[in-house]
Design brief:
By secondary structure, this protein is an alpha/beta fold. It contains 12 helices and 22 strands. Bound molecules: FE2/S2 (inorganic) cluster.
Amino acid sequence: MRVTFEPQGVCVSVTAGTTLLQAQITAGLRPDAPCGGKGTCGKCRAVLDGQEILTCQTAVDRDMTVTLPGGRQEAVLTVGTAVSVRPDGTDRYVLALDVGTTTLAAYLLDGRTGTLLASASALNPQRQYGADVISRIQYTLEHGGDALQNCVREALVSLTERMTEEAGISPFEITAAAAAGNTAMHHLLLGIAPDSLVTPPYMPQVSEALEAEGLLPISGKIRMLPNIAGFVGGDTAACMTAVRFGELEELTLLIDIGTNGEMVLGNRERRIACSTAAGPAFEGAKISCGMRGAEGAVDHVTLKNGEIVYHVIGGGKAVGLCGSGLLDLTAVLLETGHIDESGFLEGGEYCLNGSAVTLTQQDVRETQLAKAAIRAGIELLAQKLGRTVGEIQTVYLAGAFGNYLNPASACRIGMLPPCLEGRIVPIGNAAGEGAKLCALSREAYLYSQTLARDTEFLELASLPQFQDCYVDALLFSEDEDDLV
Ligand code: FES
């Protein structure tokens, strides 16, 4: 049976019973399917015969023409701050890759000077199999890992070729590379079965740093950054490398908030890492009007003279709320009293004036779950180190969400301890920066391995106090600073 997707005008033949989502994937359209096709996220909406449908829940039973919503330009954060490194100078061209669950970022560097020659980014095409790593692992367990490995490899090849073309060189002139990704991205890229990540004791199949060959059409091997634990991967090792965590004197918290919140607390003497299941709320999934930070997303909300005002990316009509907007709106509604300390939203729904963007009671609950997971992680890491959160001198926020969020809102809703508000430093795409350092310098790559090996891992769920701390962190109370 033939399915035609508009406005792209792409046709594909599929057998009866195939879902429209699967047909879209077969047609190479790379649909957004945050829940992996379970019918729960509502992000695969399309129009069929004048009716709104979910493509993942609609089976092909005849020739069909489906209208897909327009794609929106999404900004990918490729810039970050990192300490500099002395390049080995033995390679003329080097490549650094940040393999994120949501986005891929690639950098082509002059191996002798460290100068950035080109950069390129794209959404991770694996998102058609689910927004979060668990959905993708689930897909791999049911269907094998080839589809996920191939699509991400193809995307990385195309990013590499885009950059080499821009720089006027051949990809084969690249003689060194490094890649950082979380454990699931690491395993899926290398074709390693990810089963162990979702079964107790949730450890990676491969943790050690390794140099991969044959993944990309380049001459050098790819230095894969080491994993630390089940859900603390090479991306965290890369972030730690970027800030030279092993040399920090002050008590420092490094946080990368995505679907999981990975964090490390410590200094040069001792470091402990953990991962919290923050869920994809801050990436737009599970929130009724949630979306990623693309055109049309409300990214900032403030209170001016008692009025709620907001900013829309691209300046046009507001169509949804991205993570930083969600955080701000929640904080503002706490200020105005629309939301109380328990998370109760007056009237069950709040509509952002002059737009169709609403925040529902369920959205507030999802926000509470996400922020409590992060807060509980911070509190329990501090407790494990025998310190209080008030002793933390610097909070490095890595990643896109960390870069765009308003620290005051993060503290107002209690995602971060309020006492840390003035100590928050966004460091942009630190995982990408760490990968660059490791591509340019073998010393940096060895350093990332030392950091990974010497960082302890705390399994939060195994702690008896986790549940109580998490439940306390669900509240939006203003004055508590230490929850444990
Ligand atoms: S509801 Fe269809 S992909 Fe989530």
